[in-house]
Design brief:
The protein is built from 26 helices and 19 strands. By secondary structure, it is an alpha+beta fold. The protein has 5 domains: 235 residues, Up-down Bundle (Rhopdopsin 7-helix transmembrane proteins); 79 residues, Pdz3 Domain; 69 residues, no CATH class; 156 residues, Transcription factor LuxR-like, autoinducer-binding domain (Beta-Lactamase, 2-Layer Sandwich); 146 residues, Histidine kinase-like ATPase, C-terminal domain (Heat Shock Protein 90, 2-Layer Sandwich), CATH 3.30.565. Strands 2, 3, 4, 5 and 6 form a 5-stranded antiparallel beta sheet that branches. Strands 9-8-12-11-10 form a 5-stranded antiparallel beta sheet, sandwiched between helices. Helix 4 runs antiparallel to helix 5 and helix 13 packs antiparallel against helix 14. It is elongated and about 145 Å long.
Length: 823
Amino acid sequence: MLSHFETRAERWTFVGLALLLAALSVATVVSAATQIGQTWPGFVVWRNLVAPAISGPGWAGSPRREVVQWVDDEKVGDARELRHHVRDEPSGAVHEYTFRRGHGTARVRVQSRTLAWRDVLPVYLPYWIDGLAFFAVGLIVFYFRPGLAAARAALALGAILGSVLLLASDVFSAFWLDRLYFACESLTPGALLHFALCFPEEKAIARHRPWLRFAVYLPFVPLAVLQISFLEGMPEQHLVVNDLVYSAIAAAGLVSVASLVHTFLTSRSALARQQAKIVMAGVALAAFLPSLGILAIILLGANVPMNLLAPFLIVFPLSIGYAIARHDLFSVDRYLRTGVVYAALSLIVFLSYAGLVLAGETWLGGGGGLPSAAVPVYLLVVLVLFDPLRATIQRLVDRLFYRQAYSYRATVEATSRILASVLDSERIAATVLETLTEVMAIEWAVLLVVDRAGGEQRVFARPPERALEVEHALSSTAAAFVAAVASGPPISKYTVRSDRRVGQQGDDGVAVFHRTGAALVLPLRFEADPVGALLLGEKKSGAFYTDEDLQLLATLGNQSALALTNAYAYEIIRKTQAELVEAERLAAVGELASTVAHGIRNPLAGIRAAAQVAREDTEPGSTIGESLDDIISESDRLEMRIRSILDLTRPGAAEPVNSDVNDLLRDFVATLGARVPRGVMLALDLAPGLPRVSIDPTQVAEVLDILVVNAVEAMHGEGRLVLRSYLDTPENAPVMVAVAVADSGPGIEATRIARVFELFYTTKPTGTGVGLAMARRLVERQRGTIAVSSTPGAGTVFTLRLPLAADHPSRIAATSMPNFSSR
């Protein structure tokens, strides 16, 4: 339970405060119980005879924070003397009290009475509930996010203010822990300011000056010392300091409200604004109204019992709990949501038992006790009603936090309309996953689709980051697992070990649940063929899947399988149509190429033969000889281009040999000659020590020629052209040698870049749209790939990835990929 704490200090802080909460809860109830059945004066006092502004039903009244000085004309020194004096007389006797504050006095006659639980529970119970709520919320958020500044601030506020509220009844009862009460009360303004600095996001001043989180407590430490010192025999001075403390609490409460408003209006984080909005409503009731009430009592002398302000405080931890569950406040998980249900059950049991005790006192009299059979009968009733009551509260929590009262029929109809009209796998997945996580309130959902062509499986997830986690967890077992579970009903984490389908996979099948954290796996199949699987997390409410949930999941699974099957068939049809169109285009190119080749090759052969004969009659090194060499070379290049166009229209194969890419690039650049204008700066950037590749050098040179000619035309004769070589070492693909052709031209628009390799697609007025299509076909014959990237206005990069020769290892130490952004 405590293993997730990163430091020992965090672990012991949590354990220590949890034990403190338990100890305070027991002590405060026992302290109050010591006065039950005793004669009391009809109002409460502190140890030093200060009568606070606390009142309950049937009490003598609401004293206005005054000091008891005399009882029946007898001076008393502390609360114990007052109680002894009252208890010396029978219950029901009338006593005269003299109250003093400042220079004024007042005499009041009050009838004593026997104290019963029904007298104090209406006053004490709101304090206890508020204290438990504050302290528990602080511990919970710290448990889940101990490193978060807002969680630590919530813990400080919860522990300090929770202790004050829990110990409030002890200050009126046995006085065991009243010094701790006044110390925590004095530090409450500091805790509120600490909370304002860190919630819902840490303020800039606290990030730059971390010491401020602790410094806000320092001004209030002297007040704590003074309050504790004045408990013995200095009641009026104690009241003055106490007024200062309450004024500081009210001011700090208003500052907390202002901080939330400021965050809501100025924060750049949408989550922080949403969290501030939710908690702001709670703080407005829990801090704003009580702050105004305290100021009215202290500054204006309003005759209002302070305990009437206590019920407002419960709104604050409730707003925190709502924000936690509804808006992922502090990023806590589903266990807290389950805790809400059991906390509510515990409260109901506590209140029902308290009601039983009060009813017994009412019927049997103040001195009477419950019959001996009452408690066993009560426990039996609790056991019988516990599970139905838990289910009812769970449904209420689901409705309040997650709006989970979905309509089966409406959900199916809405999803069916979308799936019936969509033929795209991604949209189908998005629709199904949204229904699962939003309508059914499931924490996360992953759709695993089997690739029927034998390739890798596709994974869709909501939230999206779950896709990578599941891909990593399933690894190579995904297809086998889907095939195994496809023949039966869903598998839950509770039935996984006993399921024969998973047992066929051995430990791998069980491990799928552990590695992914899935609570339920729902197979998807169309007729007898597996289509995929849905992996589902826990429900946000913490409850497991009901029969209604499983019925809806089965319906969604069948609809999803059908929709994915239709989408797959549509993709096959669309791919086949594209291949037919491509074949028709290639047939047209083949017919055109054959006609052109027949008309060009014979004259071209004559031109080359004439140039060859003339070259033999020229002197070596003459200008005419060089021109004739250019004619012969360009004739050969034109013949190669005609042959490439013919090869584009019919199946062909490369003749790979082990080659050095750097030598190939150097030789290619040497042949460019005058075809590169003087305004274009041509550069080679070759990585040394590259492994040899298995390619057809002639075809690769033809690809480079196409790319260089296109780059020169794009730059309009001016710019920078770089040919680079490097080792490409991607994570999930084989190592290959890469050749990049980078220009500084105008680039390619994003809307056009996906079509550059299509046959007949061109953006040049005189272009044919054949060159890049031919380049891709030639590269694919080498078992390589070609890709393009471009930034409009900053140039274009075409990258060839060529396979290594067979005598080189498949994994070689990585070299850094070049950066083309500084061309």
